[in-house]
Amino acid sequence: MGGGHHGEGVTYKGVTLHKPKRWHTVTGKGLCAVMWFWVLYRAKQDGPVVLGWRHPWEGHDDHGHGHDH
Predict the structure, then answer these.
(1) Could you report how far apart the first and last alpha carbons of the chain are, in Å?
(2) Which terminal CB of the chain, N or C, has fewer other CB atoms within 10 Å?
(3) In 3D, which of 51, 50, 43, 48 has the Cα closest to residue 61?
(4) Is the Cα dihedral 19, 23, 26, 32 positive or negative?
(5) Which residues contact 46 (CB under 8 A, 6 or more apart)?
(6) What b/e string do you get for 14-48 counting C-beta neighbours within 10 Å, with b at 16 or more?
(7) Is 25 helix (H, G, I), strand (E, B) or coil?
(8) How much is the pLDDT for 37?
(9) What is the dihedral of CA 40, 44, 49, 50, to 10 degrees?
């Protein structure tokens, strides 16, 4: 089960952990950066509502479609 013994690794309590390939590391860091950019973008957009500083029905002040509410 698990594909056999390929390469070096560290074994702890019967589980062997192998060093990740470079593309796994680079892809993981890239996806982590995308995740944080998204979290910070959403915090910028929705932060005041989440923190209770503004009500969600008050609008975003950037619609610009000419209606006075």
Answers:
(1) 64
(2) N
(3) 48
(4) negative
(5) none
(6) eeeeeeeeeeeeeeeeeeeeeeeeeeeeeeeeeee
(7) helix
(8) 97
(9) 10
| 54 burial via Cβ count (<10 Å: 0-12, 13-18, 19+) | middle
Distance CA 27, CA 33 (A): 10
3-class secondary structure per residue, 32-68: HHHHHHHHHHHHHHHHHHHCCCCCHHHCCCCCCCCCC
Question: Higher confidence at residue 7 or residue 20?
Answer: 20
Task: Tell me the two tokens of residue 65.
Answer: 């479609």
